[in-house]
Amino acid sequence: MNQVDATKSVYLFTHGRRDLEASATNALVANGFAKERILAAKADAVGNVGDYMAMLWMPPTPDHIKIQKITKVEQVKAEGMVGLWKGVSKEDLFTIPLK
What is the DSSP string of 37-51? Predict the structure, then answer.
């Protein structure tokens, strides 16, 4: 099991697959993330350095969750569906199978 900081927020990107939100949340909790810290990612608000991003991958039919850590947050003008996340730099950490 990968070591995570359960005190950090986790921003879940479902890429429109709301039907997989519950199973993704369960997989994240089973891998050490705190359920109360799992938040739906929104285009108009981003996380902080040290927080996590959890992306259902690869759209449109994801089979795993890509876990990334936010390493830098720059102020940008929101653009399209990506929104403010355009200014977020991240580091790939590991993947979790989506069952």
Answer: GEEE-BTTB---TT-
